[in-house]
Amino acid sequence: MTKNNSPQDWPEPIVRVQSLSERSIDSIPDRYIKPLSDRPSSAVLDDDTNIPIIDLAGLSGDPEARASTLSQISEACNEWGFFQIVNHGVSPQLMDMARETWRQFFHMPLEEKQQYANSPKTYEGYGSRLGIEKGAILDWSDYYFLHYLPLSLKDCNKWPSQPPSCREVCDEYGREVAKLCGRLMKVLSINLGLEEEVLERGFGGEDVGACMRVNYYPKCPRPELTLGLSSHSDPGGMTLLLSDDQVPGLQVRKAHNWITVKPLPHAFIVNIGDQIQVLSNGNYKSVEHRVVVNSNKERVSLAFFYNPKSNIPIEPVKELVKADKPALYTAMTFDEYRLFIRLRGPCGKSHVESLKSPR
């Protein structure tokens, strides 16, 4: 074990899901078959329900448009924990280029990608599993994880040098999306009745963290038996997902049902993470979500995680702790919290529930 308690290596040899998919077999290994209760068919609403869609242009409109947009975001945070945003200021061309550049990476020969193979020590690089439990049931996906902020962790040498534009595109994309996250943090702060900088300050102000996980979900011969990503709530602060608008896959839990998100072209899907649930003293809730896979089509998505500085204790903002609403959570640094998750893998909402203050 290293000093931050992360193991140096995986408990068993890594199998790339993409290579299983390319063998064109009509079954999947037992390691990927989920228990009956976790399989995709359970309680999915296949109707026209979708997460709220919010036009951010209203934020810079007249006072009425701004108030209406703030209200829509507030309602989405309270009711869903998820929403889609359009007119957000990030160039559509950059969004397409980022997703397609990563698609090209995953289509490269395996030996080239293997140069970037990751370990559980930092997760940075090319990976195929989360959690280090030996014999765990695995998800049907590969991924690439990279750090973007703080700058001390950003190491472009750990980002792929192929395709040729990858590092440059990643850098520009990260810069634009981090800026957008900063804008949204102010909105969430205002909607909680706080000064606009309070949540960002709770994250460490100028020293916030950000990382990106590019998800690759290969075709799967038996999509009804497995998941691309098991049910979980995001451990960080806020997630901006650039989805694959051609292939739906993300499902969000709403009460006892799973809603399949219908992504709009050039929209971002925004969701609240566990750290904002803690800072907001439970006013905003992170919501469980999962990913289903497809027998005919691969799917590529980019999840950008905007997180607190890793070593400051995260606890409810003092203005939101009242006599009738005491602090719901005990303080924990994001480093400690993330380690908790990295050792166990995705696990519903059990992680944030474990922080609840004893009553």
UniProtKB/TrEMBL annotation:
<dbReference type="GO" id="GO:2000022">
    <property type="term" value="P:regulation of jasmonic acid mediated signaling pathway"/>
</dbReference>
<dbReference type="Pfam" id="PF14226">
    <property type="entry name" value="DIOX_N"/>
</dbReference>
<dbReference type="InterPro" id="IPR005123">
    <property type="entry name" value="Oxoglu/Fe-dep_dioxygenase_dom"/>
</dbReference>
<keyword id="KW-0611">Plant defense</keyword>
<feature type="domain" description="Fe2OG dioxygenase">
    <location>
        <begin position="207"/>
        <end position="308"/>
    </location>
</feature>
<dbReference type="GO" id="GO:0120091">
    <property type="term" value="F:jasmonic acid hydrolase"/>
</dbReference>
<dbReference type="GO" id="GO:0046872">
    <property type="term" value="F:metal ion binding"/>
</dbReference>
<keyword id="KW-0479">Metal-binding</keyword>
<dbReference type="Pfam" id="PF03171">
    <property type="entry name" value="2OG-FeII_Oxy"/>
</dbReference>
<dbReference type="InterPro" id="IPR044861">
    <property type="entry name" value="IPNS-like_FE2OG_OXY"/>
</dbReference>
<dbReference type="InterPro" id="IPR026992">
    <property type="entry name" value="DIOX_N"/>
</dbReference>
<dbReference type="GO" id="GO:0006952">
    <property type="term" value="P:defense response"/>
</dbReference>
<keyword id="KW-0408">Iron</keyword>
<dbReference type="GO" id="GO:1900150">
    <property type="term" value="P:regulation of defense response to fungus"/>
</dbReference>
<dbReference type="InterPro" id="IPR027443">
    <property type="entry name" value="IPNS-like_sf"/>
</dbReference>
<dbReference type="GO" id="GO:0051213">
    <property type="term" value="F:dioxygenase activity"/>
</dbReference>
<dbReference type="GO" id="GO:1900366">
    <property type="term" value="P:negative regulation of defense response to insect"/>
</dbReference>
<protein>
    <recommendedName>
        <fullName>Fe2OG dioxygenase domain-containing protein</fullName>
    </recommendedName>
</protein>
<dbReference type="InterPro" id="IPR050295">
    <property type="entry name" value="Plant_2OG-oxidoreductases"/>
</dbReference>
<comment type="similarity">
    <text>Belongs to the iron/ascorbate-dependent oxidoreductase family.</text>
</comment>
<keyword id="KW-0223">Dioxygenase</keyword>
<keyword id="KW-0560">Oxidoreductase</keyword>
<dbReference type="GO" id="GO:0031418">
    <property type="term" value="F:L-ascorbic acid binding"/>
</dbReference>
<keyword id="KW-0847">Vitamin C</keyword>
<keyword id="KW-1184">Jasmonic acid signaling pathway</keyword>
